[in-house]
Design goal:
20% of the residues lie in helices and 34% in strands. With 245 residues, it is an alpha/beta fold. The strands form four sheets. The chain has an eight-stranded mixed β-sheet. A two-stranded antiparallel sheet has the order 2-3. Strands 7-11 form a two-stranded antiparallel ribbon.
């Protein structure tokens, strides 16, 4: 059993309704982590979810109580800029540097794709400009890195025997998009999408890091992928177990 922290995978949506001269707003809170949390728990892992709105205040300065940290659809600013730094101009912990060092000392890091992962929508995820970029098994693009696949595309598995894929076999269900990245020379690419890395792994110091460049939940991962496919738990379970060593 591994202790896993998942940061991100939640969001607030606000809508404005305009009816003639009158208007009003409604808000909703959505949690997208459930497919991943369910899959990891089914394999015996202890999962802690830190929703996106709590990340700035509560992301740990020292992640050593966990074996694997998963960053999913949460930008670099939310981790780097704690309230005392952003709102009060007081020095605080550099949590991305601490996370990088924790990986180098034996931790396991997984970044999952989304609009606020890697470089992200309009470059707003911004991990390329941080020290955590060093720990990832891929090079990030300097521009918006999203590739939308509205008709869907199937992954191509390139290293089926690697333990990080959890023994999954057969064709993967289609995915609807991903973040484009470039593998580093020492990286092992386990699966591709449109000839770009989908699953890639590498060592970093004494630790390990991995990426899954598409989504772990809608919208890039439709229900056929994250709910109906028995390979979903194998892939993400295999990644976490490989990262935990």
């Amino acid at each position: 059993m591994s202790r896993v922290l998942i940061a991100g995978e939640s969001w607030v949506t606000q809508s404005t309704h305009i009816k003639g001269v009158d208007h009003f707003t409604t808000s909703s809170y959505v949690v997208g982590v459930e497919p991943l949390r369910k899959a990891l728990r089914s394999r015996g892992h202890e999962v802690t979810h830190l929703p996106a709105h709590l990340v700035p205040a509560e992301f740990p300065a020292d992640p050593s109580e966990y074996d694997v940290v998963v960053l999913s659809d949460i930008g670099a600013n939310s981790i780097q800029l704690a309230p005392e730094v952003f709102e009060q101009a007081r020095p605080g912990a550099d949590r991305l540097a601490n996370l990088r060092d924790w990986v180098s000392n034996g931790g396991g890091l997984l970044m999952v794709g989304g609009y606020l992962s890697f470089t992200g929508f309009e470059g707003k995820a911004a991990f390329r400009n941080t020290v955590l970029h060093e720990a990832l098994p891929v090079e990030l693009l300097p521009e918006d890195d999203r590739v939308e696949l509205p008709a869907g595309a199937n992954a191509t598995v390139t290293e089926a025997s690697h333990p990080a894929l959890g023994g999954v076999s057969g064709e993967w269900p289609p995915l609807l998009g991903y973040n484009r990245v470039r593998p580093r020379p020492e990286t092992t690419v386990l699966a591709t999408l449109n000839d770009d890395p989908l699953v890639a792994v590498a060592g970093y110091g004494q630790g390990r890091s991995a990426v899954f460049t598409s989504d772990c939940s809608p919208h890039w991962a439709p229900a056929s992928f994250c709910e109906d496919w028995d390979g979903y738990a194998r892939v993400f379970g295999g990644l976490v177990e490989w990262l935990a060593g």
